[in-house]
Every structure is written in structure tokens, then in C-alpha cells.
Amino acid sequence: xxxxxxxxxxxxxxxxxxxxxxxxxxxxxxxxxxxxxxxxxxxxxxxxxxxxxxxxxxxxxxxxxxxxxxxxxxxxxxxxxxxxxxxxxxxxxxxxxxxxxxxxxxxxxxxxxxxxxxxxxxxxxxxxxxxxxxxxxxxxxxxxxxxxxxxxxxxxxxxxxxxxxxxxxxxxxxxxxxxxxxxxxxxxxxxxxxxxxxxxxxxxxxxxxxxxxxxxxxxxxxxxxxxxxxxxxxxxxxxxxxxxxxxxxxxxxxxxxxxxxxxxxxxxxxxxxxxxxxxxxxxxxxxxxxxxxxxxxxxxxxxxxxxxxxxxxxxxxxxxxxxxxxxxxxxxxxxxxxxxxxxxxxxxxxxxxxxxxxxxxxxxxxxxxxxxxxxxxxxxxxxxxxxxxxxxxxxxxxxxxxxxxxxxxxxxxxxxxxxxxxxxxxxxxxxx
Amino acid sequence: xxxxxxxxxxxxxxxxxxxxxxxxxxxxxxxxxxxxxxxxxxxxxxxxxxxxxxxxxxxxxxxxxxxxxxxxxxxxxxxxxxxxxxxxxxxxxxxxxxxxxxxxxxxxxxxxxxxxxxxxxxxxxxxxxxxxxxxxxxxxxxxxxxxxxxxxxxxxxxxxxxxxxxxxxxxxxxxxxxxxxxxxxxxxxxxxxxxxxxxxxxxxxxxxxxxxxxxxxxxxxxxxxxxxxxxxxxxxxxxxxxxxxxxxxxxxxxxxxxxxxxxxxxxxxxxxxxxxxxxxxxxxxxxxxxxxxxxxxxxxxxxxxxxxxxxxxxxxxxxxxxxxxxxxxxxxxxxxxxxxxxxxxxxxxxxxxxxxxxxxxxxxxxxxxxxxxxxxxxxxxxxxxxxxxxxxxxxxxxxxxxxxxxxxxxxxxxxxxxxxxxxxxxxxxxxx
Lengths: 432, 432
What we know:
The structure is a homodimer. Chain A has eleven helices and 15 strands.
């Protein structure tokens, strides 16, 4: 079995290890919740201070131009584009993931229905993150469409027919960490005459994404998870250039206008992705997002997302292996795919009888020991299929191999001493 | 004529004058653009630092609960409510003005059409801020409705008929500063069987607003103008309780769900205004907004919005009077209403022949002298009706009477020496 010494040696030999210096984390904390809220880059505080005291406080209104506020959505969008296989000018930062999904799903439905009015089905997974389902439910109602939810990826194939308008999937599942094959799924959807919308909330900055390589249609993603943009950081949105200037923007705010400062009374969308800017961007939060994205770009000289992915897989594999080896007899099972290709950058554990209901307490006991993961309740009516899970995200920028070893050791101690029975039942702290 | 000495005496006797200490402004600057981007409160930098380094950096994910991030939209909403005649629990902070307009205009259309399907007209003013018109244009298209624009408030009456669904107005015009009588206009719309949507972008924090007193239906407003929330600060939204639980939220994001942490697959809107939260709020920008709102609440012991309004009217009247007295013969006319009741907290000037085209250069020359206002181009095809304007906002929290006197003196010197001819043509710096 891998020893702690082995892990320390791997950390010492890891050229990516020094990227952790970019972050400030509390002493003694092993932070395995970067899939929920990324850690704080050291650069963020000074950058936001600069925006507040100099750009806003001293330079006031002119900073929209002189400090480049007006260009932030595109500038940061281009940086994110480098992480997800998009080209310059194709990505912008705006609003929230939910709102960006509303924009692109509206567009996808219109494009498909313009050519094929009878295509009225949106297909997604029941296990998709709820906000995606809620937005799709709203748009289905408005467009006279139907939202069909499948219970497993294998069921998708049965819906690839001439009724399908849009296949809307999150590439990496927020609960299980299971990862779709974006290229293959997109090709299958296209073969059926449908478009795809990909939510990259748990992909961007976590796994290499190649939107052009996959021939994807639309994508959105989150700024505050693996992009380390800070709580509630703005989200991003991408559209394949083949849809550019064809796609619709129902949220037709003035900064998505082709010439906002002409103050025209009629909406004329900006060319390309810029139409997906809506109102005035929240500059403080947007500036902080750039610092987060920069922590990922710092890996480019070291191999970029491919190198980060290699480390991520090594970390998650080590965690899964150690969790099974050390804690398997205590009732722990690995829920996430063991096949590397089918896994994002997180590992989820479930607990077997008699610990089935102990998950929340176990997470609390781990947090008290400084190991921060989170708990996601299962479906009480079918815990065999959707169990309670302990969710651990592994951000290769700031998690090392010894951290993984220590986290499993803590888990072992919590379970073997039944320490979780004494864990304080803190209020839930959970924003996915 | 009022002398500078008179103005200094008025400042010395003004109990609101000390509220300026809440702000940090560059030395030598007379800031008359708070109607575009409010000035920076001194408290903002430290508060945002606390959010970044302590709440995010040290306390990480648990701050959603322990630092009250989850409650920020309601907590700040309640504070804004005190400025606009709304009750606790009726206002939330979310997204942008454009997006909040999309939410409430969608709701208003649905409510009206549920009772009166033949009501299919939205009426607004051609001079309304464009983003409002763009959002209405989009929703009119989606709802099979018509957007009708009037050229003056007097024309509204002709459209108060059984076709009218929603009367959508900005209370204080962003160009001219002309102010509607919200109570009278709302009563007339209601008498015609229609609902009202009020944009308070240039009202909240600028003039007393009494949403309940006016029996208004829906309202939205901006966080970064008179509320001093910082560049692109989140906006706010209000709905009258009589519409609560009836109104629709097309932008059905997860944090507007009745129980977001149950991760249900079906959307069930939260009770009341909280359904208008959509995705995860941008916490840094939201926290900064609270500091801005607090600068207005600091006036409550001194008479609150009524006292601020009294000073605002005195400032704008003084500016208009001095501008006419000192600069009238140089070609300056006051475009904003001289009747106090019909005016917001800004004064706009136009220039007569031969200075008709000099407005932009005059503003640049003033900015070079430290007097910051802005320029709004007129309609080139009918400059007699929609002239180029010089726009000056007067925020009683940080503008004094001597500032007004000095600003007019600078304007006089710019015009009388034709200094504007030498003004650098800086890039436009303009976010309304």
C-alpha cells in the first residue's frame, strides 16, 4: 500500500507543486471542496483593492475605458477560452451559469426549430445540477417543448431521434464526478439532427476541454469552482462560430447591443458572442475572476491543462485506492467511476449499512479535523440508486499527494473510532 | 446673484454636509457624475478585503452560512426598501437592472394576460433608457405583444385603454432628469386596467420613492448610481405583495427555488420576492453594494431621503439658476424641468448656436478642470427636440453648494475663453 513517505516523495518530484504558492489557504486545512468554491488566490485581494481604491475611487467613471472595465468580459473570456478549446473572441464572461444557460438554450431551441419545427424535445439527465433543469423547464414551457430526463447516460441513445431538439448535459456530474465523452455524445446528437448544450461547471479548469475538437454547439460554465474566481464569480458562455450571428439573445441588455453608446431605441445585437453580455457587468467580482483564471494559466509553461489533468487523475486514483484499501472494511465504497476517462476531478464515497445515514456526520467530523469536503443527500426513496455521498474535489493546483494520504487517514480515524457520532451538526454549508 | 461666500455659508450651516466624510474622492474634483457611477465609500475597501481574505480565504465554503452570504440579497434588499417605500422582505438584490426588468415585465405581462388576454400593448417612452426598451422589445416578441413608444409623457394618456397591458416607465429620465408623478401615473394606468413597471435607476437614493403610497406594481433599480455600490453593482427588484406568489420567474435559477438544497428536479419558486434570485450571487460586488446603501441610511437620523431631497433640490435649483445667470448669454440653456416636483437630482444643459456641436468638447474641458459631468449625444436628425446635452448629477451626500458655484464658474471660464476648443478629445467615458 502507498505510504505517506511515498506521497511526500511524489510531491517533492511534482513540478506542479509550486503552483500552490499562488493560493492562501488556512494553516492545517486540506481543502477538498474546490469543486464547490475554489480557494483564494493570493493576488485577488490586491487586485480588487486596486479596482476599488484607484480605478473606482480615484479615476471614477473614466475607468470604463482607461482601466479597461469595458473589455473585462472579453479579456477574461479569451483567457478561459484557452482552457476549454475555444478561440479568441469566442468566450465572454457574464452573469451567472443559470442565466447563460437561459441564453444559449433559448438560442439552440430557436436555431433547431427554425429548420425543424417539429423538434420539440430537450433531453437531459435527472442527475444534472438542478438549476440546469429549472432553466430548461422554464424554456420548454415557453417554447412549447418537452423536457425529458434520463436516469443514466446509457438511456440517451434511445432519445436521439427526429423529435430531439437539444441535448443538454453537464460534462462532469456534480454529484458523482462521472464524465461524458463530449466528442462522442456530440457526434451522436448531431447525427440525429440535434444541437448540444454543454455545462462545463465541473470541467473548466478541472479537465481538458476541447470544444472545437468536439464540434460542440454551445457551452457555459462557472467561475467560482475550479476557476477560483471567488464566491458567486460571474460565469462564462461560448457559442460555436457556425452559430455566430444566427443565435438569439432573449436577455437583450444594452451592453450586448452592437453600438451601446448610440443609445438607439431598437435592439441590434453585437456581432458574435458579445451579444451575450446583457447589463453592466459587476466589475469587482469580474476582476477577481481574472485572478482566479490566471492561476490556471500559470500552469501553461508546465504543460497546462494536460499536465493538470494527469496530476488530477493521479490524485483521484490515489484517493479512491486508499479509501478502498484503508476504509473499505469500515463500509466505504467509491461511487465515482474508477475508469480515468470517465471521471472528472472529484471522487465521491458512499457508506454502507450500518453507516448509510452517517454521511453528513462523517463530513462534519472531517471538517473539524481540517479536511473540507461536502455532503450531498441521496434520494431517500431509492438510496440504493442515489445514495448519500461524501464528495471530495481534487484541485491539482493546490492539493498534493500527501494531502490525499492525510485525508484518507483522517477518514479512517473518524470511522474506526466512530468519532463522527460526536461531530457537531453544523448548519449545512453548501453551494455546489 | 448668489456669491461663493453665500454658498460657503450654506455649506457651513448644512447638517448633511458631514455625510461627505463617508466618501473618498480625489482632491480637487467636483464629482457631478454620481448619476452614472456613484462615488466610493471609504468603508468599501475594508469590507471587501474582509470578504476576500477572511470570509473566502480563511472560512471558505462555510461562509455561505457563517458570514451570511446566503442572506445578503435579502439583507441589502431590506435596506434599499427603506429608501423606496417598500417593507421588509419585499426587495431583493440580484443580477442587473436589465435582467430584473426581464423578470418583472414577464411577470406583469402574464398577470395581465391571464385576466385579459386581449391586452397586448406595452407602452413606454422613446426617451427611456435603451436597455429597458431592448428588454421590452424582446418580451413583446415572445409574448405576441406590441411595444409602443411615446415621445412625451403627455402622450401616455392616449394609450390608457383596454389594449394596454403594462405601462413601463423610468421615474426619472436618464437624459433630462424629468420626473414622473409615480402616484398619479400609476393610478391612471390602474384605472385603465393595466399594470405598471417602474425603473428607479435614477430615483433610488436620489429622490424619495413611496412604492406602497403610489400603489405601484413592480419596480427595479440600479445599485451603482445614487446607491454608490461600485461599478456594475448588482441591481434590486420589488413586487407589490398583492402580486406575490402569483408572479412568474422565467429565469428560474436554483437559488430562487423554495428549497434549493433539496436539489429537486422540479422548479418550485420560493415564496414572494426571493424567487427573483436566480443563480449564485456575485458576493464581492454584492458586499460592496451594502457599503454604498449604508451611506444613504446614515442620513436617516438627519431626516433621511426627505432631507436629502430638500438639499438635492436646493443644489439643482442653484446650479440651474447660476448656469442661466452666468452662462445664459454664452449660449447655455437649462433642459431639465425648472419645476422642482418634476425634476430628479440632475440638471442638463444644452448649448445654442454656434455652440450646438461643442457639448462634448465642453465636457472634456470641464473634466480637465476637475469638474466631472458627462455628455449625451442628441438625435442628429432632430436636434431641436433631442439636443446634445451636458449632464450633471447632484448627489447631496457628497456635493455641496460651493461645489455648485465652482462648477458654474468653471463652465463660465471654459465658454468665455473658448477653452473647449483646446480640450483633448478623450475617449468617451460613459456608462449611464
